[in-house]
Amino acid sequence: MTHTAKRQIKLGSFLIGPGSNIAAWRHHSTPANAPVNLEFIKEVARTAEAGKFDFLFNGDSAYITRDSTPYFLSRFEPITALSALAACTTHIGLAGTFSTSYSEPFTTARQLASLDKISGGRAGWNAVTSALEGVARNHGHDKLHEHALRYRIASEYIDVVKGLWDSWEDDAFVRNKESGQYVDFDKMHTLDHQGEFFKVQGPLNMERSPQGRPVVFQAGASDTGRELAAREADAVFSNHGTHTPLSEAREFYADIKRRAARYNRASEDILIMPSITPILGATQAEADRKYAETSAYLDIDLAVKYLGRFFSFFNFSQFALDQPLPDLGDIGKDSFRSTAEYYKRIAREENLTLRQLALRAANPKGEFVGTPETVADRMQELFEARAVDGFIIYPHVQTEGLRDFVDQVVPILRRRGLFRSDYESDTLRGNLGLSYPENRYTAARKRPEQAA
User: Fold this and answer.
1) What would the CATH number be for the domain defined by 10-287+365-451?
2) What is the CA radius of gyration of the chain?
3) How does pLDDT run across 118-177, given as a tens digit for each residue?
4) List of residues 6+ apart from 284 with CB closer than 8 A
5) Which of 185, 205, 369, 390 is spaced 20 to 30 Å from 67 by Cα?
6) How far apart (Å, rounded) are the C-alpha atoms in residues 120 and 215?
7) CA distance 431 to 241
8) Inter-CA distances, 174 with 117, 185, 191, 390, Å
9) d(CA 239, CA 221)
10) CA 256 to chain centre
11) Number of H helices, E strands in the chain
């Protein structure tokens, strides 16, 4: 693909759950059982598709405790929910979280390839290393792998999955009824991978989809995570640009693009997309009132426990609620490392109390609480400064927050020429403006011809 079209903002939306606030299930406009209410999830999907969003994002984790966020306790597994949505949507991408630490690459490759085929080329994979100790225990391990090891495993895992997705060349399945040829076996390829962590023969029993292979998302912000993203990801989830100064966001953006170039990747083929929580009002005061309304549902004890989730469920209740937090040292180094480092940094720089930090984590209030014009202005500033390529909308409550954004902010972005009026493609990769990934075996066969 040649990147000649005018650069425009890409948009995704969180799917499962009643909203970004951990107590959003109590809000009057959202069903209490939102995470397991299929009709509600369909409504979210249709709202985002009506707004011409690029994709829906189904975040997930395989571990809960009694202290977990309430709507984490019962929620649909991603491949099931996304397959259901494939049947009632036509263009919007369907991205789900699947762990690289506690699953088999063949299974993940087959599930996502199937979703990609079912949806006509709209599948995406959020490849995570899993940062909770309990996830390990739920999968037969005694403890969480340390950070560097998780990323070594992830690197090999993603490589294996991509190799399996190339098991069949694009035109391998002939299905010629007249000749009786179903498939061209010269275009089937066995992986025969034997690595440090995985031994996988292949081939995958699923043909290629119209987008070649699912879009790969990744969220690591550490140096190791950035390197993995630059090598393997099509899009990067980031907090830079929404929780950091503009200069830091621009440096993160440029750093990822520089690293990608070292792997001979085009700058346009890796997208940087932070999540934002727009809360809209006709005036700033009205938007602030909506934020305060959702904050009123929060229980401080639950907020403190939720904060601990990012630090391997560290018990923060040992600290006084209204005293500045002490130095947290290396707590969280093997959990959600970049998020834990962010919370430690703002606690230190802003001299936050435990209460303030917990509420900040449980119901974040950033620069996107305001009028539709001010929210669009900030999005445009970050985009045009080359700090982001797009945003993932995490509504404060579903579907009210998403509908407000679609009805009030999207038209402003369109008037400014920053967002599409209609889909450009039937595939997720096409709508994101990403290059089609040529099958490695097809490419290898062409090389001698090109040399000649």
Assistant:
1) 3.20.20.30
2) 22
3) 999 999 999 998 766 777 788 877 777 788 899 999 999 999 999 999 999 999 999 999
4) 369, 370, 371, 374
5) 369
6) 13
7) 23
8) 17, 10, 22, 39
9) 9
10) 16
11) 16, 12
Encoded amino acid at 102, one letter: Y
Per-residue pLDDT band at 57 (split at 50, 70, 90): very high
Which backbone phi and psi does 405 adopt, to 5 degrees? -65, -45
Question: Which residues 6+ apart lie within 8 Å of 56 measured at CB?
Answer: 12, 13, 14, 15, 44, 45, 48, 82, 85, 92, 93, 94, 95
Three-state SS string over 45-105 comes to HHHHHHCCCCEEEECCCCCCCCCCCHHHCCCCCHHHHHHHHHCCCCCCEEEEEEECCCCCH
Confidence label for 324 from pLDDT (cuts 50, 70 and 90): confident
Q: What gap in Å lies between CA 78 and CA 58, rounded to an integer?
A: 6
User: Alpha carbon 249 to chain centroid distance?
Assistant: 18
Task: State how far the Cα of 127 lies from the Cα of 96, in Å rounded to an integer.
Answer: 9
Contact 130, 436 (CB under 8 A): no
Q: Phi and psi dihedrals of 373, rounded to 5?
A: -65, -40
Domain with CATH 3.20.20.30 in the chain: 10-287+365-451
pTM of the entire structure? Answer: 0.89
Interhelix angle 337-349/354-362, rounded to 10 degrees, is 140
